[in-house]
Amino acid sequence: MPEGIRKLYYSISEVSARTGLKPHVLRFWETEFPDLQPRKNRAGNRIYTERDIALVERIQHLLRNEKYTLEGARKALERERVPEREDGETWREDLRRLRAFLEEMLRRLPA
């Protein structure tokens, strides 16, 4: 493949080679980490995106380098994904309220 061109999808064996993890570990992590859900192609084979691979590498770092347990790594990823604001609420709650507001405005628009 020419330099500068990146693939959109990677097989489990390519991810395994890139991360040094066995395929069965990657499949197990899918059951333990809700955010790690690679899509499957028509043949039923897992296809990983760059985002999926970055998550695998983050999980690997948490477990191997920072010595988190599976539960601890899951909680750390959750904290990273939904940061709390100073007032204790999450951005997700703000987004839900914004969505409800926008949906209400859309309903009020004339047809």
What do these coordinates show?
With about 110 residues, this protein is mainly α. It is about 60% helix and about 5% strand. It has helices spanning about 10-20, 25-30, 50-65, 70-80, 90-110; strands at about 40, 45. The protein has a two-stranded antiparallel ribbon. The N and C termini lie far apart (about 50 Å). The model has no long low-confidence stretch (mean pLDDT about 90).
Low-confidence stretches: none
Query: Strand share of the residues?
Result: under 5%
Choose one word for the global shape. Answer: extended
Strand order, main sheet: write it out: 1-2
Mean of all residue-level pLDDT scores: 90
Quaternary structure state of the chains depicted: single chain
Radius of gyration: 19 Å
Biggest sheet statistics:
2 strands, antiparallel
Distance between the termini: 52 Å
Helix content: 55-70%
Order of helices and strands: HHEEHHH
Classify the secondary structure makeup into a structural class: mainly alpha
SS elements, strand count: 2
Number of helices: 5
Write a compact overview of the structure shown.
This protein is 58% helix and 4% strand.
Question: How are the SSEs ordered, and which strands pair?
Answer:
Elements: H1 12-19, H2 23-32, E1 39-40, E2 46-47, H3 50-65, H4 70-81, H5 91-108
Antiparallel strand pairs: 1-2
